[in-house]
Write a structure and sequence with these properties.
Elements (H helix, E strand, L loop, with lengths): L5 H8 L4 H4 L22 H8 L3 E4 L4 E7 L4 E4 L2 E7 L2 E4 L4 E13 L2 E14 L4 E13 L4 E8 L3 H10 L7
Parallel strand pairs: 1-3, 2-4, 3-5, 4-6, 5-6, 6-7, 7-8, 8-9
Length: 174
């Protein structure tokens, strides 16, 4: 294959200023567009994406237990995680397992989640995915073959609102 031949690699390595532009790779993951200068004008989300996001991947056969995960935009679980987390996105792969407490914007479950899950924006459970425990969600999508069981409630519902109010002390001054 020409893609992996020495000549093709030499040609790539010999490009002028290529090495100077390339940041070192961490664990073989190519750099994001964070090194590129961002334009002065554009959407706020585009500038955030250009700076990169913090992403933690717990790979297959990895066990992460007894931690609190902070400042992580996206957690990808391919192994086993037992932790608490308050973040933006969690993705649980088909072989991934997460046990613990999660407050998240978006939860995408293809594997297994057990514990307390609050998906402020949406919870998506794919075929083969399983979510069990105390589950709160903004929006819910369950693909055929996905399973959700336990104490399930929509965040906007009166029951969930009263639980949140009692958990935060219930003082609203009125």
């Amino acid at each position: 294959m020409a893609l992996f031949s020495k000549d093709a690699q030499a040609a790539i390595a010999c490009k002028p200023n290529d090495a100077a532009r390339r940041a070192p790779h961490l664990l073989g993951i190519p750099p994001t567009d964070a090194a590129k200068p961002s334009p002065r004008h554009g959407a706020a989300s585009a500038s955030k994406q250009s700076r990169g996001e913090s992403r933690l991947i717990v790979g297959p056969n990895i066990k992460l237990k007894g931690v609190e995960i902070e400042d992580c935009d996206t957690l990808v679980v391919e192994g086993y995680v037992e932790a608490s987390m308050n973040s933006r996105v969690i993705e649980i792969s088909p072989d991934g397992v997460y046990k613990g407490t999660v407050e998240i914007d978006i939860a995408i479950v293809r594997g297994r989640f057990e514990g307390n899950l609050t998906a402020r924006d949406r919870l998506v459970v794919h075929n083969g995915g399983s979510v069990s425990g105390k589950i709160r969600y903004g929006r819910l999508a369950i693909e055929e073959g996905g399973r959700v069981h336990g104490d399930l409630d929509e965040i906007g519902s009166p029951k969930a609102a009263s639980e949140i109010k009692s958990a935060t002390g219930g003082a609203d001054g009125g």
